[in-house]
Amino acid sequence: MAEWWSIEVFSGDKLPASGWRYAYEDELTEAAITNGALYYEWHDTEYGVIVEILFPGEAEWESFRNLPAVRAALDGVPDPVNGLLIYRGRGGAAGGTKPRKPKPAPGAAALELEEPKEERRVRLKRPRLLRYRAEQVDELLRELGADPGRIDEPDRGVPGHDEPVSRDIAAFDRSGD
After folding, report:
1. Quick check: is 58 in a domain?
2. Strand stretches in 46-165, DSSP E
3. Cα distance between residue 19 and residue 1, in whole Å
4. Which pTM was predicted?
5. Nearest to 77 by CA among 36, 28, 35
6. 6 with 52: CB under 8 angstroms?
7. Are 160 and 171 spatial neighbours (Cβ–Cβ below 8 Å)?
8. Do residues 28 and 67 lie in contact, with contact meaning Cβ atoms separated by under 8 Å?
9. What is the CATH number of the domain that holds 42?
């Protein structure tokens, strides 16, 4: 299976990594192609340069890595102590080879919902009893001063209360009161 390999070179205090690229680009490209590289790419970044090379297998990478021209190029990086990274995979911000696990959604969707509260129903014993016992309803109506045998529609206080409301509004004029 083909694998990507990356050589990442950082700029030094006195020399930029782009100068290293222009000095060794032809030798590294030729060495990669002659040792079986399937593909290669050069990338300039704000902190240095990256060369990504796709080899068919690890044996081709090892033979490329052990060439004198490649070792000389790696020894000539601008910052010999902290300026060189060599690793398997694509370089820079290419991302991982395996997808990351999804994270909770930001914002309100990430909050845990609170448990539903138990509904408290206020139960009044008297109205419930009145609903089922007609004699108690009659008693209540007598206490309020109404005749329990006759329940009328309340008078709305306007002339023609048996007519539609819109007609009452149009026909009743209070301006003369």
Report:
1. yes
2. 48-55, 84-88
3. 34
4. 0.51
5. 28
6. yes
7. yes
8. no
9. 3.30.70.100
